[in-house]
User: Fold this.
Amino acid sequence: MRKYVIMGVQGSGKGTQSEILCRDLDLVHIAVGDIFRWNVQQHTKMGAQVRRVMSEGELVGDDMVEQVVRRRLDEHDWNFGFVIDGFPRNGRQAEFFMESYDIDGVIHLGLSDDEVRRRVLSRRLCPNCGMDYNLIADRPEVEGRCDICGHELVRREDDTPEALNARLRDYNEKTRPVLELFGRKEFVHDIDARPPVDDVQQAIREALGLPDYKPAL
Ligand code: AMP
Assistant:
């Protein structure tokens, strides 16, 4: 059983790296932001409660976050383990998590604020099939259209300069102390998030003592 936390500011590639790791090792990817986004899209009661906070790039309240994480982990569909992404984001969430679960490692994807701005503001999403694009590294074949389903691409509602600044501020003020907390227990592996996706994945494998990454040809 492997239980990993992946941390890093918006745009550092947490989602992409978690998905590769989970696919290869049969782990479950638990992305707390995706759970909230699903609730907003489905117009659930929780979605209505978090929509505004999310679109402004602010953090959802700890009680609700803990409830979502507990419920998700209580599903126990993670026989081989999980990678949790986007959580914990402050000291209280970290304490809640450490009290309830053993952690095997924390991956921290490091990226400067300037590089984060460059990446996030060029990010696009297909609202129909969920495919991600990046206008710098991963452009769609036809400008503004999804390669898979042809739907018009959009920006994530919280990928605006204002919301990004709020997220960077929260990350620097609230989430960095979590890294220090985990660091004291020697859980944290600092990984440079600037190289290409495959290289970052290999660096994660080495840091966690996992078999080498073999990208599909
Ligand atoms: P993410 O996709 O991880 O950037 O999450 C998108 C949004 O969901 C964040 O900007 C927050 O509003 C909310 N969110 C996700 N995870 C957390 C968390 N651990 N604590 C508080 N808010 C969160």
